[in-house]
Give the backbone structure.
Amino acid sequence: MSDLLLYDYFRSSAGYRVRIALAMKGLSYRRHPVQLLPGEQRQPDYLARNPQGLVPALDIGGAVLTQSLAILDWLDRRYPEPRLLPDEPEARARQYAMALAIACDIHPIDNLRVLQYLDRELQVAKPDRDAWYAHWIVEGLTALERMAGDGRFLGGEEPGLADICLVPQLYNARRFSVPLDAFPKLVAIDAAATALPAFAAAHPDRCEEASGA
């Protein structure tokens, strides 16, 4: 039995990132779904694992890791092949910047708890909430399209950390019907990545609870 246990929600962008990385590294793991909509992430037993009440959390046997980019960093150091980030300092910084543009500047503004706050506390109408979502996605992807190079992936000729962040973000953009025609580089990179077995294996539709969504 694997020592790795992933606490995850199938449509979580952050959880999706970790599933991709685990598949890229060829690691077996057990998966424990955390149902975000009814609020399982706020129950005391889960908060004991992750005080932020967010997914994912990765139990590595003796410790629980949180925050997807921190988990990806641990995976890259613990299981160094294939590399998610290059060693060369400038290339590493460039790819990190693209990953952070997604994980820190786009995703947090549009994640479930923010959308629920807009709905429940501020009573924002659904069309206005969806416009909020699309605005921040388009603003972030516009910058990322400019940052993308001419390689097959954001990481160059092989997928890396930035691509692991990009694919879940575009998946969610499509779920909310955000037009992507203005981002041909990103759409092409997404298509190249999702065709790879590791990315395909991590897709939300492959998760056990997807059939009931």
Notes: The domain at 89-198 is CATH 1.20.1050.10 (Glutathione S-transferase Yfyf (Class Pi); Chain A, domain 2). The chain has two domains: 5-82, 89-198.
